[in-house]
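Let's practice the habit of predicting before peeking. Look at the sequence and jot down your guess about where helices and strands might fall. Then scroll down.
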Amino acid sequence: MSHLHGDHFGGLPFLILDGQFSRRTAPLTIAGPPGITKRLTDSMECLFPGSSSIPRRFDVATVEITPGATMTVAGITVTSWQVNHPSGAPALAIRLDLAGRTIAYTGDTAWTDALVECAAGADLLIAEAYYRDKTVPYHLRQADLCSYRDRLTAKRIVLTHMSADMLGRPDLIAFEAAHDGLTLTL
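Done guessing? Here is the structure:
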C-alpha cells in the first residue's frame, strides 16, 4: 500500500473480516508505509470493536516499508521512494520485483523525479492520473506523465485513480486506462 488515506487503505478491515467469514486459512501479509500497523489496528477497532485481537484461522502480518529502502516482503522484492502526498505517514512510490517481472506504482503524488527511478525499465508502471491537465495539489496529471514520458522507461503504463475529467473523455486518455475487472498479463 502506498499511503494511509482511506481510499487506499479503508478496505483492509473488510478484507480481514471477509477472510474470517470465508474460513480463510492462508496467511495474509499487508505491507505499507510506517504507521500501517497502528492505523490498521485503530481502523479495525473503530469499525468493529474487539476485531483487531480476536483469534483467526489465518495469520495477519503487517510489514512497515522503510522509505528509500529495498526489502523482501512475502517473497517479493520491494523498493520504495518517498513521494509528495501528505497522508499522516510517508507516502510511497513502490516497485515490486518477482519472478523476473517488475511492477512500479506511483501511488498518489505530485510529480517528483523519484518516479523516474521507480519506473526505470519496469514491465508495468501503474500511474495515478487524477486530471488531464488541471493542477490538483499532491496529485499527478496526465499532462505530467506526457511531459516526462521520455524519462519514464517502463515498457507499459496503465493509468488509475482518474477523476470524472479523465473518465468522461476516454478519447483523450493518452495511455492505457485501468477499469474495473481489468486483468493484465506481463
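How did you do? Residues 66-186 form a domain with the Metallo-beta-lactamase; Chain A fold (CATH 3.60.15.10).
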